[in-house]
């Protein structure tokens, strides 16, 4: 990530309002493979959601689209959960079986009491596929979800077809940024999100996005929510030397105004992935372009998956 994180926390943020494109209707897969229209739900509590278990942890997930369609697994970013892909899945669920899951420490999976690495999270993703009895899938990973998706592809390369990477990188953060995350972890442990939620919103979404639902999610998270997820983030290893092993067809998306990860990282990532088909830089988008600018991201994402994920 780029810049002084604590400095970004001090950024003034005045935008308020409803959470983005809430009018989207999702498509859920029934047991008979039929499509069922369901209203969107943005306050994830785990009620009615399926779970799978690994290492004593119950992971929440959900799936949308035809049961027999090609599978695409969506992995969310840090501080997010599977809800961030609502608008993308609504665009894709007619043609793909879209699987979303909440990683350790986030969403309906909830806080974790044990240390973990993104290699562990990659194994969690693979365990989800095993649970669903899915032999082959494609991946969409945003930021932290990209860290996990690339590691899953390295662990079991024959398991995956195509990879879409959004706002992510293969290397590690500077020491200054790592220290800023440590400060954030300490603040969250003392006071929860109340002193940082507004500026986190501006940092992740930009000043024009109405992120009240996400702010409320952070406010509802306990003070113990953050320790192990931050530790996994700041201690991750550099997998840049192994990018040549990720020979899957890939595409890279990035916001031109991303304050968390520089667009330079996206350019470097796209250049080093052996079979990267395109780098899509989204004008006026910050760290979450698939959420804040779904209308721009969805068409090339859909075209990529239609061509390479089937």
TrEMBL record:
Q: Is Endoplasmic reticulum a UniProt keyword of this protein? A: no
**Which residues are in the AB hydrolase-1 domain?**
70-293
From the Swiss-Prot or TrEMBL record, what is one GO molecular function term? hydrolase activity
* Source species, domain of life: Bacteria
Q: Which Gene3D superfamilies match?
A: alpha/beta hydrolase
Keywords of the record: Hydrolase
Q: Which residues form a coiled coil?
A: none
Name under which the protein is recorded = Alpha/beta fold hydrolase
**Organism of derivation:** Paraburkholderia madseniana
């Amino acid at each position: 990530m780029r810049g002084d994180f604590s400095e970004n926390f001090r950024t003034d943020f005045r935008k308020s309002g409803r959470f983005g494109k809430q009018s989207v209707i999702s498509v859920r897969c029934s047991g008979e493979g039929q499509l069922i229209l369901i209203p969107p739900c943005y306050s994830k509590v785990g009620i009615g959601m399926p779970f799978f278990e690994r290492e004593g942890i119950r992971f929440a997930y959900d799936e949308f689209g035809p049961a027999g369609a090609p599978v695409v697994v969506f992995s969310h970013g840090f501080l997010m959960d599977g809800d961030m892909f609502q608008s993308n899945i609504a665009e894709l669920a007619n043609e793909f079986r879209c699987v979303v899951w909440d990683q350790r420490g986030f969403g309906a999976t909830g806080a974790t009491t044990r240390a973990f690495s993104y290699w562990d999270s990659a194994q969690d993703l693979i365990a989800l596929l095993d649970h669903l009895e899915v032999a082959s899938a494609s991946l969409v990973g945003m930021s932290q979800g990209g860290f996990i998706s690339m590691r899953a592809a390295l662990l079991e390369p024959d398991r995956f077809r195509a990879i879409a990477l959004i706002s992510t990188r293969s290397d590690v953060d500077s020491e200054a940024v790592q220290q800023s995350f440590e400060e954030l972890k300490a603040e969250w442990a003392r006071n929860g999100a109340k002193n940082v939620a507004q500026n986190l919103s501006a940092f992740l979404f930009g000043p024009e996005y109405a992120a009240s639902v996400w702010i409320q999610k952070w406010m509802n998270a306990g003070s113990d929510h953050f320790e192990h997820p931050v530790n996994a983030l700041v201690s991750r290893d550099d997998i840049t030397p192994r990018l040549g092993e990720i020979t899957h067809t890939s595409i890279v998306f990035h916001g031109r105004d991303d304050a968390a990860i520089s667009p330079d990282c996206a350019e470097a990532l796209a250049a080093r992935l052996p079979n990267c088909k395109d780098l899509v830089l989204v004008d006026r988008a910050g760290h979450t372009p698939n959420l804040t600018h779904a209308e721009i991201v969805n068409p090339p994402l859909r075209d990529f998956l239609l061509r390479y994920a089937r």
